[in-house]
Write a structure and sequence with these properties.
This protein is mostly helical and 159 residues long. The chain contains five helices and five strands. Helix 1 packs parallel to helix 3 and helix 3 runs antiparallel to helix 4.
């Protein structure tokens, strides 16, 4: 089966299905784009933010985190489509742990790059941060998903 990926605004549609975690990936990707634009436009202490090593490192971390989460979502979708939900359970747990945490981290880094403007409701960064934090609780706390993943992992590796 082929994996078809389409973009719908800030969300990704995988084989016709929207995954709630793709919203986290899409939002984080958008904030990375805005962070890069802000870093290129904003001058602090006579130098563009994009020239500051600390800002470069934050942008690099965001890009790595987003890509890792995106690939994990794609893997979960692929396994689910080819082998069913039961086979995809470890990946689904991983996505539920990694996706919202990644979005929260990217939003927090965006707040830093945007400075005071990053905490205003005008930028939507606080909304992304709050939504990501909410997702880490609403679908079960991270600890529940980590316990589930550990049980599945132990079962898979010792049989």
């Amino acid at each position: 089966m082929e994996l078809e990926i389409k973009r719908d605004g800030d969300e990704y549609v995988l084989n016709g299905q929207k995954w709630w975690t793709t919203n986290a990936v899409g939002a984080a990707q958008r904030w990375l784009e805005l962070m890069c634009a802000r870093a290129e436009d904003r001058v602090a202490f006579g130098e563009k933010l994009s020239k500051k090593t600390s800002v470069q490192h934050e942008i690099a971390r965001c890009r790595c985190d987003i890509e890792q989460a995106r690939l994990l979502v794609l893997q979960a979708a692929d396994v689910m489509n080819k082998q069913g939900v039961k086979a995809a359970m470890p990946y689904i747990s991983m996505v539920k742990i990694v996706g919202p945490q990644m979005a929260q981290n990217v939003a927090e880094r965006a707040m830093q790059v945007f400075g005071g403007m990053g905490v205003w409701q005008d930028t939507m960064i606080p909304d992304v941060f709050t939504h990501a934090r909410f997702c880490r609780i609403a679908d079960g706390p991270d600890e529940v998903h980590m316990s589930q993943l550990a049980k599945l992992t132990i079962h898979d590796l010792i049989r």
